[in-house]
Amino acid sequence: METVEEITVGKVITCKAAVAWEPKGKFIVQDVQVDPPLAMEVRIKVTHTSLCRSDLFFWTNEALGHTFPRIFGHEAAGIVESVGEGIDDLKPGDHVLPVFTGECKECKYCASPKTNLCSKFGTESLATGMKGDGKSRFSVNGKPVSRFLGSTFSEYTVVEYPYVVKINPVAPLDKVCLLGCGVTAGIGAVRRIAQLEPGATIAVFGLGTVGLSVVKEAQRRGASRIIGVDININKAAEGNFFGVTDFFNPDNLDKPVEEVIKELTGGGVDYAFECVGNPKVMATAFASCQDGWGTTIVLGVAGPATVSIPTRSLLTGRCMKGTLYGGYKPKTDVPALVEQYLHKDFDVEEFITHNLPFSRINDAFKLLQAGECLRTVLHYNETVN
Hints:
By secondary structure, this protein is of the alpha/beta class.
């Protein structure tokens, strides 16, 4: 079992991190200084981090107004190095997942079984790039470096306690890091949001990791038809591997894809999952659903935009739902999800297409931008090709 060095507790740690100094700029792997955790904070030694399209979206989208320099990354796993005052159920050496949405277990959202939102520790509180005290725990030669969610593109990171999930130390960190975001979002969208029944028909728009995790879970739950939609023609074979029964590239059709789906299914699918984060695709997914009960579930991350859907379709029974992290409450539900993985109730290995040393993070982003990977896992302390 991996361990942490007790001699670092209470001290500033200098370690390697990938710093983005400007939007779309090359990630610079360099020394950064990471402060000790303050009250109700946890400093984590990140062992593995994977790349998510949310990192790509916020790194390249200048219109969002994020401050730079910044350390991105949020889908990861690691080991507690030290904890701040007030934390009594985490200790150095514990294996954890840093997650992007928190759970205080006290607010009305956390008390409700209807949502996994938290009014005190949502994703919005992490978007500013600074901690609640207006400061960063990262710096380069005295210059503050903004964070992004868990900032796991750093060998060490500091995360607030509500965003840290303790997991079974038996779980392989290079695999369960994927449960920090994408795979969990897809599984939960099928299980918790759709509550998909055997025999249901679905359409999945966007066959990345999130979309394919929807496909795989729908197959496990006995969906009768799984339609995959993607403009990357290479996704046809990949989708088939995961359980897609019919694949369409909208760019290659002579009519709108929603019309094709309605003709194929005799009126539309029972569930449509939007995994792209594009308002136009959301509207298309909605139009692909069956009148009377068709449900569109939005998983894709989009910037500030408006979705346009006809009100008549709402009056005739269709609906659209959004979901964050698949509806799972991080501290309450995710440890059990890790146990399900350990009992082989589902796989995550099939979503890992590349393993690279952390120093090759720029190569990993090129794969992601080119659509040539699902998840690339970056390893901090292991030799990988």
